[in-house]
């Protein structure tokens, strides 16, 4: 099935390499990185997760994901299911993070013996065996070398809980599931993250055309003794499109939460879910998704995006982009990136940021022919505007708005969720009156596809 597995750094350095079947050239990692680094096919800037290699290894399929700045790659010559291999790569990254605590180049290099031991148990002769952290504990015996998390720059989801110099306590993203605290004691704590990725498409007049939420209740447990956990969600939670008519009057008042569908981890028991919306489970070792859900019912998007582009004379045009944050002033969105493709004959662009703008930058990516507006943070209730003046190398043909856009927006909003799904309480079956583990419940909303048409 899989011929090779390897992990590359952002520079192309080979950190981990395992050849399972001897069917593909040893130079495949170098060929892969060269193709990804200089990918220019189909006018795309980044290589897709699945593509067929040419050069001197004609017929080799490369399947990869990029996680925490690292390339997790497999090669194969046979016809395999791409979605299966992509899921396998995601799970390998997750189980590696469970054992190392921190997933980055430094932790992989310092724990290469442990990583190779994990790979030998996860994949045998190119065939996946198991990706369960709990099951692997019986076969993996090396102890990880723990990386000091204070020296690790925040990457991806790890940085979403960083607010200036303050940091959310008990960082689950930097702890190994098999390492005890100094002194041999283990800090009893459990983390529950409600992570939602939203997709919204706005019309040119600002109306919502499509909207969807893909959410996950992600859990990571450091509890000893396998205690039972009860996780209570909204009492008025309903599941299925047929339920919407029953709750319409409550939904309009902001009461009910209506999900289209959902699925649960195998450890979750649903004995009382239909009665009081409570999940019961004994959490397995490692990070896992207790519940995945999808929502397409109408919801209030966190941002309103509008844009206007029109001619401003011969060979000139002006584009105005506005962003309004439709959430409470106590909430702050981080790392906002707004991108707008412009006509291919755009030669130069000058920008005018709003007065007093702090933490904002605007740039014209000439090779990709797009504008990029970056905002360090946006406070709820605020509005921001960017004005861009374009100079063309030739006259436009037809409606200029049809040759530009749409606008794409990426962001992360800690402690906010658009679906209003809430954890009412998190109960842990106590062993004794003095047993009181730490509980951390966090919310975050990310953009999956946030598009505004011109």
Topology (SSEs and partners):
Layout: E1 4-8, E2 14-19, H1 28-37, E3 50-52, E4 61-67, E5 70-76, H2 82-100, H3 105-110, H4 112-122, E6 123-124, E7 127-128, H5 133-136, E8 162-163, E9 166-167, E10 189-202, E11 208-221, E12 229-233, E13 237-239, H6 244-252, E14 257-259, E15 261-264, E16 268-269, H7 273-276, E17 278-281, E18 287-295, E19 303-311, E20 316-325, E21 332-341, E22 346-353, E23 360-365, E24 370-379, E25 383-392, E26 407-414, E27 423-428, E28 438-452
Parallel strand pairs: 10-28, 13-14
Antiparallel strand pairs: 1-2, 1-5, 3-4, 4-5, 6-7, 8-9, 10-11, 11-18, 12-17, 12-27, 15-18, 16-17, 19-20, 20-25, 21-24, 21-26, 22-25, 23-24, 26-28
Which features does this protein show?
mainly beta; 41% strand; 9-stranded mixed sheet; 3 domains; Immunoglobulin-like; Beta-Lactamase
Q: What share of residues is helical?
A: 10-25%
CA radius of gyration is 24 Å
**Structural class determined from secondary elements:** mainly beta
Number of strands: 28
Q: DSSP strand (E) fraction? A: 35-45%
Distance between the termini: 46 Å
User: What's the level 1 CATH class of the largest domain?
Assistant: Alpha Beta
User: Biggest sheet, in brief?
Assistant: 9 strands, mixed
Mean pLDDT: 84
- In CATH, the topology of the largest domain is named Beta-Lactamase
Principal-axes geometry comes out as globular
Please give the order of strands in the largest beta sheet. Answer: 15-18-11-10-28-26-21-24-23
Helical stretch tally: 7
Question: What would you say the CATH architecture of the largest domain is?
Answer: 2-Layer Sandwich
Low-confidence stretches: 152-172, 244-253
Q: How many discrete structural domains?
A: 3
């Amino acid at each position: 099935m899989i011929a090779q597995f390897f992990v590359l750094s952002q520079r192309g350095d080979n950190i981990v390499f395992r050849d399972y079947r001897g069917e593909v050239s040893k130079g495949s990692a170098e060929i892969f990185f060269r193709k990804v680094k200089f990918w220019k096919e189909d006018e795309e800037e980044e290589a897709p997760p699945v593509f067929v290699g040419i050069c001197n290894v004609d017929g080799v399929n490369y399947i990869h994901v990029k996680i925490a700045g690292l390339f997790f790659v497999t090669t194969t010559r046979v016809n395999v299911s791409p979605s299966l291999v992509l899921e396998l790569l995601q799970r390998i990254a997750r189980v590696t993070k469970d054992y190392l605590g921190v997933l980055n180049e430094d932790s992989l290099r310092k724990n290469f013996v442990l990583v190779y031991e994990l790979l030998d148990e996860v994949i045998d002769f190119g065939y996946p065996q198991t990706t369960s952290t709990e099951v692997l504990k019986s076969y993996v015996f090396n102890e990880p070398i723990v990386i000091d998390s204070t020296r690790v720059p925040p990457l991806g989801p790890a940085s979403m809980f960083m607010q200036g110099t303050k940091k959310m306590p008990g960082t689950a993203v930097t702890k190994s599931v098999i390492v005890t605290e100094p002194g041999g004691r283990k800090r009893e704590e459990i983390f529950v993250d409600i992570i939602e990725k939203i997709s919204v498409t706005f019309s040119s007049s600002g109306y919502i055309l499509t909207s969807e939420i893909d959410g996950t209740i992600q859990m990571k447990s450091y509890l000893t003794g396998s205690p039972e956990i009860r996780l209570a969600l909204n009492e008025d939670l309903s599941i299925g499109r047929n339920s919407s008519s029953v709750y319409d009057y409550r939904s309009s008042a902001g009461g009910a939460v209506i999900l289209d569908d959902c699925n649960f981890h195998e450890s979750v028991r649903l004995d009382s879910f239909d009665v009081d919306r409570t999940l019961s489970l004994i959490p397995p070792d490692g990070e896992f998704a207790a519940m995945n859900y999808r929502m397409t019912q109408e919801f209030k998007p966190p941002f309103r995006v509008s844009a206007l582009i029109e001619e401003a004379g011969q060979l000139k045009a002006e584009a105005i982009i506005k962003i309004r944050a439709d959430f409470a002033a106590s909430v702050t969105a981080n790392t906002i990136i707004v991108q707008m493709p412009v006509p291919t004959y755009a030669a130069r662009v000058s920008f005018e940021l709003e007065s007093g703008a702090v933490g904002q930058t605007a740039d014209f990516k000439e090779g990709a022919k797009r504008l990029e507006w970056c905002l360090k943070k946006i406070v709820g209730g605020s509005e921001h505007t960017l004005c861009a003046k374009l100079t063309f190398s030739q006259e436009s043909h037809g409606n200029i708005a049809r040759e530009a856009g749409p606008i794409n927006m990426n962001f992360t909003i800690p402690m906010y969720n658009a679906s209003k799904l809430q954890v009412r309480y998190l109960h842990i079956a106590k062993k004794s009156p003095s047993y009181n583990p730490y509980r951390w419940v966090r919310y975050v909303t990310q953009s999956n596809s946030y598009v505004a048409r011109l």
